[in-house]
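Quick one: structure for this chain?
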Amino acid sequence: MNKITVESPSNIALIKYWGKFGKQFPRNPSLSFTLSKAKTILTLEVAKKNNQDEVVDLEFTFAGKSNDKFKAKMVKFLLEEKIHFDHLLQHKIIIHSENTFPHSSGIASSASSMSAFVFAALKLEFTLSGSQDFSDENFLNKASSLSRIASGSASRSLFSGLALWGDYEKIGNNDWAVGVEHLVDPRFKNFRDAIVIVSAEEKAVSSRAGHALMDHHPYREVRFSTARERLSQLLLAMKNYDLETFIKIVETEALDLHSLMMTSDPSFILLEPKTLEVIKLLRNFRLTHQIPVCFTLDAGPNLHVLYPAEFSEAVDTFLLSLNLPIINDQVGFGTTVVSSDN
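Got it. Here's what it folds into:
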């Protein structure tokens, strides 16, 4: 095989991790829904290397155009992790990538793009090396671990339905994420996620910079312990399909994330006035219609509206009334191989 095409989705965290240490390890465990339609489609192929003295010979295009910024990120990763890609790096690497969602839409593009890149690179490395030593589980663990190094949240995108990343009881660890959809009620597989685009502008502060501000945050230790407690509470609620508790924890986590940003030094505010307006309207809709719908937020102003599929008609009507761009998505199945050439 010298060419492979993969699809890898983004994900939305229900329990957020905010703060890192060491080599992209999380300060607290996180839990996320894997999405379905919001994904990166990436083709990686190898050809004869132009310059044998060059460690990484890489050509990269995104949506048909060269992208030097992202190419530099991939080259940097391969240089730092070259021990894992010895056979791949003996070739010229050609990558074509595209996303099914727009930039700055509240969907984590680094999660989908880096998990797709690492998954494809590792698959091709194993083929070129003739490795037969890895089971599917071990491959996913290694792909998740390397994806974590490329982009923390990317570690979770490889798994179907629900993924947990971080040291947690006997379930999770800091090195790679694990799939945990078997631990919760299967009805969560049918959850919808409608992303409400409040602002399409690129956020003023990167997530990487925001994570770094947790190193000296006055509430850091309280936050880390609280997130762990909420994870336990949320997993129990999802096991019992207790939507009232699910909603309470998910919304509290979203607001907690932004409160940490607003109380860091320097502080920053990513919420927009329209974000707060939509939250108020959503909560009033939930109360008035008694529909189990809730919101969460990433590190930006756009809302992810989560709800069971059977309430789609009523929720869709509400979302249309907002007169804002909506991206409709749902819980999905993780990273998959679309095609490969032998």
